[in-house]
Amino acid sequence: MAQLGKVSRTGFYRFEARQGDAAPDPDLDLRDAIQRVALEWPSYGTRRVTCELVARGWEVNRKRVQRLMREDNLLCLRRRRFVASTTDSRHGLPVYPNLPPELVVTGIDQLWVADITYIRLRTEFVYLAVILDAFSRRVVGWA
User: Fold this and answer.
1) Do residue 14 and residue 67 come from a single domain?
2) pLDDT tens, the chain, 143 aa long
3) Domain containing residue 136
């Protein structure tokens, strides 16, 4: 066929490949359904979207849904975890300045810093309070 058309074999196959690109997307309806689910539930990932599509009557694979969501940039929006603030500065009480940033520590026992945390055990939580020397970074005391 290439000889009859006086075209090189490579040119024929390149032309055929370019003609194949103009074909409509076979996944167009599925992409539309995925986008509808992603708009309805923005925090759904590929597994939940796949389950929702199956519930709506689609026969799809999770890997196919994942590929299409990646191509369409339909990443799920993660909800941020609630982080409790440890201080409330919006009050009428006097606020004492934090002096250690201005203090130049030149020896031990000039500035102590403290912290408290919890340790999760199998049956309960225990709290740990530690006092550190800022110069040597050694533990002065703990409870």
Assistant:
1) yes
2) 777 878 887 777 777 666 555 567 788 999 999 999 999 988 889 999 999 999 999 999 999 999 999 999 887 767 777 777 767 777 888 877 777 778 888 999 998 999 999 999 999 999 999 999 989 999 999 99
3) 103-142
* 132 exposure class (CB count in 10 Å sphere: 0-12, 13-18, 19+): middle
Is 88 domain-assigned? no
Edge to edge, the sheet with strand 125-133 lists 112-120, 125-133, 139-142
Give dist(CA 74, CA 49) in Å, integer. 11
Q: Model pTM? A: 0.43
